[in-house]
Amino acid sequence: MLLRRCLPAAILALALATPALAQDPSFRLNNRSNATINEIYVSSANDNSWGSDLLGQNVLGPGQTLVIRLPQGQCLNDIRVVLANGQSHERRRVDTCQITDYNIQ
């Protein structure tokens, strides 16, 4: 009898927790290419500038991953990656609340 009373409460708690998770814009950027990434920029789609390079003095080698932490609720973001050869890749208005991984190939 106790299980029947607790189960609906547990389901309700899970249902209430899910929307909060859906608003988490953080994600893993995975370098699945053969090139080294020298710069990574992620900014709100509402911003007119890229902001600072998230790698700083570091690089992201082939096969490496970087966790990108963003403010809660900042779901629409622009992503720019600059490779060691100077080539850049940009993607605008990525809904990062809907992804857990972003792969550079």
UniProtKB/TrEMBL annotation:
Keyword Signal: yes
The entry's keywords: Signal
Signal peptide residues on this chain, from the entry's feature table: 1-22
Name this polypeptide is given: Uncharacterized protein
